[in-house]
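Lab meeting prep.
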Amino acid sequence: MALILLLMIGGLITLVAGAEFLVRGASRLAAALGISPLIIGLTIVAFGTSSPELAVSVQSALGGQADVAIGNVVGSNIFNVLFILGASALITPLIVAQQLVRFDVPLMIGVSIGVWLFALNGYVERWEGALLFAGIVAYTVFLGVQSHRERNAAVIAEYETEYRLKRPFSWLQGLLDTGMAGGGLALLVVGARWFVDGAVGAAEAFGVSELVIGLTIVAAGTSLPEVATSIVAALRGERDIAVGNVVGSNIFNILAVLGLTALVAPGSGVPVSTNALWLDMPFMIVVAIACLPIFFTGYLIARWEGILFLGYYGMYTLFLILNSIHYPNLMEYRNLFLLFAIPLTVITIGLSVAREMRERREAMRRSENALRDGIGAERNGG
């Protein structure tokens, strides 16, 4: 047990160090290349921090632990939104880029629904895995084109000042920044592996099921790179990286991690258990959909919304624990959750959306009145 505890502590320390190196190196590369930090967060940082999920899910599928493979992806996506964005928003309110609301979050919702539809027959089959993996290739190409369009002097000037970069940018500096980002990524992967090994060993000692292990300990453990990276990015003021990392990681988890897992899994694909199909995957979809109105209200994730996210994750985790120990009053807990938490959230988000729409109409009305007054003054002066 002492070795397990040492693995977990060592993993956490390694994760924090790796996150700092990755965020700093990736941000400096964004500055040098004139690429927006949102694109960096959606690609390099998001894909890099999702590499533990890829390694664990593929290894689990090859080892015949399908519940761990599926639970890792679904649990990580739930954890990313509810816990990571919640914790990051508690540190500082997170500004959400319009591109996320218009394209990336709807894409996250779409692929979440799509993979659930694929799994309705009890499997994510090999051809479906190939289709998912083709999706991540297309998404990466799209972001590459987008980053080329966003290359501009304003971004370069902002990051030159923030990171004290000198012009012309030297290849040596570029190699050092790439090495810093790569070293940080390596530390993240090693730290996550240590933590997961320790946590799974502890969970198995208590007789917890593979699906619950995948949905909680493995999912949280492989998401620790995203936790460390997003929180460090929020502390450093890199809010686009903090939010883009979560959304990009969720898209990558479904398209790349689950797609590749289905491709390499023995048999016809990855089997999906009934619990995962009718409880955890629908909850993943609900969580993804919940992002859209919350992101839409002022393009800001406020602290109270962060508290809401964290509260939801706590209730979901408690439900999984109670279910795993066959708690006799589980249905009463579920009904309590449905009767109070969900309606309260719907009403709160609805009021926020209504307030945001009203503020926008008032702003438009003030703008029209100012324009009308200006035209009237010009005519009177004429």
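Slide two material, second protein:
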Amino acid sequence: MSQHIPTHQDSPVSPDGPGPERQALLNVRSEVAKVIVGQDAAVTGMLIALLAKGHVLLEGVPGVAKTLLVRTLSAALSLDTKRVQFTPDLMPGDVTGSLIYEAQNSEFAFREGPVFTNILLADEINRTPPKTQASLLEAMEERQVSVDGVSRALPDPFIVAATQNPVEYEGTYPLPEAQLDRFLLKLTLSVPDRDDEIEVIRRHSAGFDPRDLAAAGVRPVASALDLAKARRAVATVAIAPEVIAYIVDVVRATRTAPSFQLGVSPRGATALLNTARAWAWLSGRTFVTPDDVKALTLPALRHRVSMRPEAEMDGVEVDDVLLGILATVPVPR
């Protein structure tokens, strides 16, 4: 059993129509759909992460358009993006940048690494050792990097979109819990259903080239300024005390669930609040409902818990446990 973020078909329509900032973000979603087929929930999740200023972990088997999703989203938003292929021999300086000796003036100069961008695509992040994975932590948490004692601010906006293959694949390293907790959402991209896969193959047979997004009709429909205005609007979305209490109750229930040996931290509760607020705004509401919380519980919490070995041996899935919690925690009325 699985449950995903609601898609644009599920969004209620605001009676006053979308404002300019929300319309710009909705246009981005439509633009990405020109290239990405059958992954509406992942597209929505990426927009929510940008609105909530958080990082995203994209998981799925190779070939389900994880990389293409990030590139297309960047193009539609006029944002700069850089890609790092994580490999077993990748060094921290290959990500953050390093000091380079310049012979002409006999001085060391800082050469920026690919982390100096708006959306950093960290491809197959779990194929590199923990030391290099950890080099992203400061950038993700502080939006800066420190080299030789000097801190350098990263651009705004800045998020990391990291792809990973399922952990049972050969040659993968589990991500440290401290790093997993820095990801706002974990989105799972599944193999498309039959009709969607037919559409994907039809587009390729008609000449679609994933390396040429402009030829596919993708154009910039929003900007970093639109995103900044949208973020300010999201911050005004109201959340009632009883809905805040509901978020806390859901999170606390993960700490006593028999199948979990590690529950969700308070940081996870904050992530659930921020993402539910972003989804409410994207849906045209000025307040958060319990249904918004339910919609974001799986992607916001599934990577912040740890299963007991005996539960894993019994075939229990994280999402199933979280769905069970949602079914038992009382919903405010």
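Talking points for slide two:
The radius of gyration is 20 Å.
Residues 11-16 have pLDDT under 50 and may be disordered.
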